[in-house]
Amino acid sequence: MKDEADETIVCRCEDLTLAEIRAAIEAGYTDFEELKRFLRVGMGPCQGRTCIPIVRRELARYLRKSVGEIAAPTKRPPAVNVLFGTVKSGSER
């Protein structure tokens, strides 16, 4: 029997439910970076502001660890800073 909480949307950007997160963990994706690459969790426009803490909690629960023991995902900033004026003008400087 499915729990109603399983249908809760965890990642709004990627439209992922708690059931999908739990299924991926059960399938062996037990590292946040693996989940990120498999489900795209934390890769939407909000960059995981809502879903990262929830996914870390689920990983900790499954692995019987504290949330602090679950590594946060890596962030990759843009390679080069670009000023908005440059983007607006269309120049490449």
Structure characterization notes:
It is a single chain. This protein has a two-stranded antiparallel sheet. The chain has a single domain (4-89), classed as Orthogonal Bundle (Arc Repressor Mutant, subunit A). The longest helix has 13 residues, at 51-63. A hairpin with a 4-residue loop joins strand 1 (9-11) and strand 2 (16-17). It has helices spanning 18-26, 32-39, 51-63, 84-89; strands spanning 9-11, 16-17. It has 93 residues and is mainly alpha-helical.
CATH architecture: Orthogonal Bundle
Mean pLDDT: 87
Question: Total helix count?
Answer: 4
Structural class: mainly alpha
**End-to-end CA span:** 59 Å
CATH topology: Arc Repressor Mutant, subunit A
What about the largest sheet? 2 strands, antiparallel
**Going across the major beta sheet, what is the strand order?**
1-2
CATH class placement? Mainly Alpha
- Write down the Rg: 17 Å
